[in-house]
Request: fold
Amino acid sequence: MTDEAAAPQEVTSKEAQEAHWAKPVSQLHIAHEVPADAINLNVEGKRVAGMTGGFGKMWQKTYRVRLDGANVAPEQVVKVWKEHFPEFWKKGNRFFGPMASISPGDVALINVKTGGVKLSTGILVLYADDVSFSFMTPEGHMFNGLITFSARDVDGVTEAQIDALIRAQDPIYEFGMTFLGGHGAENRQWLHVLRSLAGHFGVDGQPTVERVCVDKKRQWKQFGNIRRSAAIRTVFYSVTRPLRRRGAKRSGNSMTGA
Amino acid sequence: MPQGTLTLEVRQPAPATSVLDVHGDITADSEKPLMDAYGEAKAAKSIVLNFTGLDYMNSGGIGLLVTLLVRANRQKQKLLAFGLTEHYRQIFELTRIDEAIAIFSSEDEALQAAAK
Reply:
């Protein structure tokens, strides 16, 4: 092959690799329609939470399930995972993403119930290729960091995996994660997702979790993140909702969930 | 997704500064070579990552850099970088890693900043 023939291929390959990443954005914007009952309170117009920010201890959590007996390639698993992502979630936790699949740059809403409170937040799809996809969070989310969903061949068996490298964003979230069962709730969520994914391929999966504390130090300079807390904003939104409903009725306007 | 290999060379252009020359891909599978190289450079006060030879990085690679940053912070070391393409510079901005790893256009600039 001559150099002239090789050059365009290299360019194409480089472009394809770069297309796996989200384009730079200064503020998040939800480009798809969301249902009227979804609360879009802490995502639109917000900044992405930096990978190195956050208040609490940093944890590396790895959730894994082997798809024993399923004759399915890692690429097929990730394709299904991207296309059916919300369907694998626990009841009560909702993911409002684009209808088709998960692609780099997508912004999705998340409404979860935690401790009886409905929390509105979201994610940015930072990266997606054939065998993995990764999310980052907006400012105000429970944690800063990166969650990667992937599949790989391990000794002839496809394994699905979720890697979370996370740090609670503010002191209230850190307290909740540490003392109010936040880590347990997160574990149950992702173990459920892996069990559901395995079930999709006809496998009675037994997912596992490993947890390593990457950084025991709390970042006290990030204490002020509390002012952006999606939890506080969502609680305030929920508490004042009846008042806004009453006001809307008086003025004759209808009120949507957003 | 490319699953290339990562090799790193460790240089010490100044007594308190080590440069890690990156060659190849940084993915989630690159933990051993990256942390081994960091281990060699551990005594330095400043560690400069040379990304001129970086072919490809995925989100797993970004996660590894965050872990490396945590280790460097624990040792009170400065982490700096140069040689990033425009694309990866944008990724560093998007993930806001550039707020913790100072990015420079050339090795000279990075070494000058490391010496300060």
